[in-house]
């Protein structure tokens, strides 16, 4: 795993800027560095050595040095591609997956190369003959890739913070997206919270040539081939084979591989499959309060399959002291409260291994979230109650104060693209109107993301919701925090369930094999659980999802941490963007058990992020509270 950066040369950029940019992301690759510069471009690279330790230095060059590659990730089918390329006349100087990208680009061109890759990756190839830069990101956004384009300057990198090392990068807050962030806790599009900084979207590539950047899609997950004849038993057997194959592919490394382990079925299944191949060290995180801790489950399971487990305990001080640092490593504000746990879990694992497996992706691809269940209720309501009646009931309910069923009637009158809870995951439009100081910043966030639902129009609601999550929640929240919190500790995390082959099969599964009902009770991830149950103890396969819980809601009311939040809520940053009286009200409501912890955490972490990345605009000292990890110091 690595980090890279680069830019199109412009007058006035000091030559050493490429090293300054690369050093900003040294944590992604502490083992080695490499640089390439000519009259067109400057490329920088930081390496974390995983495969072919002696020969994987980058930038890597093609024949006649006309191509230069920087690459972050792993290509799991690189051995097969290597053989295919050799049969077509290509010769290899190394046994690393990086060279497959160079040789594949030479032999097949960019689109055909991308169609053949299985892995997690972001890479950039400078093509001297064409005087162009080509960059691509993996199918589901496991690995990050950004670019900055202000019309004059063009630069790219694995993380936004790399741009801070370039004097031509103009750091500006994208205030227009504040309402979107408050709604989703991330930005569900190519835009970012920095002006002129864009994500390369999952399954996309860009080409920069002659002063212009163009993007295109090479892979798009879809549900165009759902097979309604499939059964839970049949799908479970197929999932068994696919998970077995994917874990084997994800275990390829020339260094020790460990595994994250919670009490849930996803990580337990992955860990169990890996343990069949070789002894594997697992790592679990918990708290002193057993109500939130999964350590008893995870350590018991590791012992049961005779594998080593290291339990890691986190305190409230660990959690709150880390938050400014978390905002630095996240690049953009992300208010997922499980992120600090993932950082400390990664920090503990890195003491023993440079690579770990993890269980992300099963809920999105196989239908694991309980929120999908409400789709069945709404579909029945829509089927039996005409739209004009639902609209009338919704309008009447909205005029009354709270009563049982009010929220259902209001939402039941709305289309899914407006109703789905992810669209208003933290603040809805009414709540945002209360907290935002500038009313012009509030916007229709459902409209902002409607185009994603339009892509699966006509599918059942569960399928539409999963599609939305796969294209937003998974890459911009779950995988984003996994990448940033692990790579901050120079740890490579691999996700065997977020895999092209596994996912493409999941796309054929009908809703009835993803979610079913047993004795009148819903069973999420039905086929996946049945597959897991054939491999792990039934008590693990059937265990209710906890979602990486923490005592954060209780800690917010602890005077020691509550005081920090109050200070932030009354800071000059807060007063610039928010109505402080309303923030005080939210805190008061939380103390009385009537408000969302997520609302408080989202506002608080945004204030910390702004203070870290725009310290010149505030008198708060959050930037000085960032504690860099060892490889950045």
UniProtKB/TrEMBL annotation:
- EC number of the protein: 6.3.5.4
Molecular function terms from GO: asparagine synthase (glutamine-hydrolyzing) activity
According to the entry, every stretch annotated as the Glutamine amidotransferase type-2 domain falls at 2-211
Query: Which sequence ranges form a coiled-coil region, renumbered to this chain?
Result: none
Looking up InterPro entries in the UniProt record yields: Asn_synth_AEB (IPR006426), Asn_synthase (IPR001962), ASN_synthetase/amidase (IPR051786), AsnB_N (IPR033738), GATase_2_dom (IPR017932), Ntn_hydrolases_N (IPR029055), Rossmann-like_a/b/a_fold (IPR014729)
Q: What keywords sit in the KW lines?
A: Amino-acid biosynthesis, Asparagine biosynthesis, ATP-binding, Glutamine amidotransferase, Ligase, Nucleotide-binding
Per the record, what are the reactions this protein catalyses?
L-aspartate + L-glutamine + ATP + H2O = L-asparagine + L-glutamate + AMP + diphosphate + H(+)
Pathway in which the depicted protein is active: Amino-acid biosynthesis; L-asparagine biosynthesis; L-asparagine from L-aspartate (L-Gln route): step 1/1
Which domain of life, per UniProt? Bacteria
Q: Which family does the similarity line name?
A: Belongs to the asparagine synthetase family.
- PANTHER family assigned: ASPARAGINE SYNTHETASE (PTHR43284:SF1), ASPARAGINE SYNTHETASE (GLUTAMINE-HYDROLYZING) (PTHR43284)
Protein name as catalogued = asparagine synthase (glutamine-hydrolyzing)
Q: Which species is the source of this protein?
A: Fructilactobacillus carniphilus
Q: What is the lineage of its organism?
A: Bacteria, Bacillati, Bacillota, Bacilli, Lactobacillales
